[in-house]
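Hi R.,

Here's the input for the iron/sulfur cluster complex you asked about:
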Amino acid sequence: MNDKVIKVDMLARVEGEGAFKVVVRDGEIVGTEFRIFEPPRFFEAFLQGRDHMEAPDITARICGICPVAYQMSSVHAMEMALGITVDGPLRDLRRLLYCGEWIESHILHAAMLHAPDFLGYAGAIEMANDGHGDAVKLALEYKKAGNAIVTFVGGREIHPINVRVGGFYKVPRKTDFAPLREQLLKARDLAEKFVDWTASFTFPDKERDYTMVSLSHPDEYPMNEGRVVSSKGLDIDVTDWPAHFREEHVAHSNALQGFMVDGSSYLCGPVPRFNNAYDLLSDRAKAAAERVGLPRDNRNPYRSITVRAIEGLYAVDEALRIIDAYEEPDAPFVAYEPRAGVGMAATEAPRGLLFHRYELNDDGSIKTALIVPPTSQNQPSIEEDLQSFIGDILDQPDEDILLLCEQTIRNYDPCISCATHFLELDIDRG
Amino acid sequence: MAKPRLGVFKFSSCDGCQLSLLDCEDELLAVAGAIDIAYFPEATRSDDVGHYDIAFIEGSVTTPHEAEMIQDIRARSTALITLGACATSGGIQALKNGADTAAFIDAVYAHPEYIDTLDTATPISDHVTVDFELRGCPISKRDLIELVAATVVGRTPQTPSHAACIECKLAGHVCVMVSQGTPCLGPVTHAGCGALCPGYARGCYGCFGPKETPNTAALAAQLANHGADNRQIARLFSTFNTNAPEFRKEAEKHE
Ligand code: SF4
Ligand code: SF4
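And here is the predicted structure with iron/sulfur cluster in place:
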């Protein structure tokens, strides 16, 4: 019992390919490894020498699930290097676009990838065919509102073509928004029901005292801009990121792992945003959290599925607020002259903080690029969760252990394409 | 008639093309009814291995393991179809072809000895016979739905093969190159997107790859007339389809 090897070839329903290993000796877990197999694609290297204007289109291709996040972090970093500020309606349009991606990504993950864990199915289609068809249809309908926003503002839902340094290529007219607004009003009801659905699941009773890291902005729920804060008192300007965080290359992974500078792990993503910025949620989102009994200092990572649903509801509300306040800007982008400089930015990808740093040459070409995606940052925390959460069920059947491991990893909505493809689960019992 | 068995496989890619399948909300459950989704790890845990009537391949070959895997999938599949620029031409990661891979690894990773990668990112057709290919970075939903609908009834999919430039004229957009001097690859780029970029007042950057027999030299000359220097022209042909022979050759002329 204490000495055997369990191996699953792949953990499905994540974006990309990874592997996972638990080493058990004498009934005790002595090590956990979350390995990323996704082949390296070397974005930071081939950005060197490209024009700064190409960064949003090229970095978008790091991840088909969250291209807007890559576009946003890259344009903000470039704008800092170029010394320009984008505000007013252009800034709002960017936030609107981001709301669209949050809805798309969160609902895809919560309904199609994560919910089957709670209800005991192999996937959403199996779930739909076995009595949960209405819930899956509701989620698909709701998710379409996210796609509609990204398509409306960005031109298409995957790898939008309308984002540029300085703003957009083309901006919508006030009157163009009417059909989108209608769709969002309907989506808001679906979003409320979706929160209730996720909250009806049974959650493993497990918690950890995470260091929760997110952006922080005085007036806005974290998304495009802000200081970097943690639940343990960190509060820094984003340009101080390199002094407080570091990345390490470990032998078992093709993605770098992120740590605080003292070597400790931390958590980024929806749960830290929710905990650190609860007050800035919309009234409707707060009311939904209260209704389903989600505490504001939630430390149970399994309840992240409901946090995603709350953030989805918030994103619908916020999108409607932006649409109602929108006034067409004078120009679709802020003009500038290329120059040498250094720029950094962090924005809140659906899965957590996404940091970019670029150095530009005089002609606006890229000298160096550094990209720190959320899943890299969460890798150490994933390993620690596995270490602490499965210890008390090691005497249970292997299939149950495997399912809990998978569910635990999916709490993070790990985007392995970002971090660098198959999750393979391997329990080594000696 | 038994439902056709589908396998969806990922190689080096961003997941965007297979996500297009999950993004077909209105069609998804209908497709799931008409096709037996035997293998699609991004969507389901059930991994029903064996023979596939249709294999969808996303991504390019960049590691020794991937080079082996594609041979195995080909041997087990009746129709093998590539989805998107990565699988069809190599994708953005083919920018490493011709570069010094060791230097690339050094630029990204502290311990290069941990990394196992080939020097090139190559399209699936460099390795095995491909029965049909969809273009785009990402593929268009319209093409994908047509492909699935055609495959289920056993006819050849009707996807256009003319230039994005023709789609642009059909859409009635103002030509961005003529009106604003904006560099645009529309005349040499495969149709499929409906001339999206010119509709947003920007030039096409060629994400659907070269159309059949594109006159890249004539376009490059015109770009130069509009003031583009060699470096810009080379960059323009070296993005998401940098390894497509027609684009690669044109880029090399300007390096
Ligand atoms: S072709 Fe483009 S969208 Fe498709 S997988 Fe490759 S990078 Fe992603
Ligand atoms: S216009 Fe060109 S770059 Fe833009 S989406 Fe179409 S093929 Fe891709």
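One thing worth noting: The pocket of iron/sulfur cluster (ligand 1) is lined by residues A 61, 64, 159; B 13-14, 16-17, 58-59, 84-86, 91-92, 137-138, 240 (CB under 6 Å).

Cheers,
M.
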